[in-house]
């Protein structure tokens, strides 16, 4: 049996990361997205980290290029006409997936190790045979962001048991 | 007081630099544990290190153990700032010689609170 994180947990983690670094003025809202993806491949950035050990999965963040620029500008504290370059964008998007993946890992069975992020300009590519077990689509300031969790397994997938409140 | 920020992410170093510089710390930066050790060995030994855990070249755990192995650097306060929130990793960091542990994402207040607990807020920042 492969465990999947609850979508509410994925949303909560992404929201926490967003709020910490981008502030609370503009909320990150869940969004319904039509099949085919929320942004064109050439106008996106993506990053992935692998979790291996007690839980094996790949956590991927994809976001529009405009959102990647906003995120990077805010994280680097850039002001005025100064614009982030591709290395800055890759760095910030990589740190974003590092935080999302690391916090998701902490919810799942462990111990597990987190890889360093792999970042690309464009949409994410997934390993053949990878199965998507969680997907959060959101919108921030009108721009899309998607967080997915993939596993490579033939075993059935079950949700992580939630605590009884 | 001087703080060294050790993280492979320039964006994260920038965020932490703005926080500690706002508390009147002088800041140094390193992109991994080895770069940080090189700065130590060149005589640029800080009062405080904010150390990421997962870094290329030399990770945070190795850096902490190397610093703690040198008695001339025992006065340096080490605080890990990382996404690693598994209990086992926290215990490992503290056992290796870290004084405090902050989990990303964090707010500036979380960093200030930890520094206050460690008695490391400069007088200017408390005024």
Q: How many helices of chain A does DSSP assign?
A: 3
Low-confidence stretches of chain A: none
Please tally the β strands of chain B and state the result: 5
Largest sheet, strands/sense/barrel of chain A: 7 strands, antiparallel
CATH superfamily of chain A: CheC-like
CATH topology of chain B: Rossmann fold
In DSSP terms, counting alpha (H) and pi (I) runs of 4 or more, how many helices of chain B?
A: 6
N-to-C order of helices and strands of chain B: EHEHEHEHEHH
User: What characteristic shape of chain A results from the CA principal axes?
Assistant: globular
Class of secondary structure makeup of chain A:
alpha+beta
Largest sheet of chain B, if any? 5 strands, parallel
CATH architecture of chain A: 3-Layer(aba) Sandwich
Strand content of the residues of chain B, in percent? 15-25%
CATH superfamily caption of chain B: Response regulator
* Oligomer status: heterodimer
Helix content of chain A: 25-40%
Q: What is the rounded distance between the termini of chain A?
A: 25 Å
Number of domains of chain B: 1
Spans where pLDDT lies below 50 across 5 or more residues of chain B: none
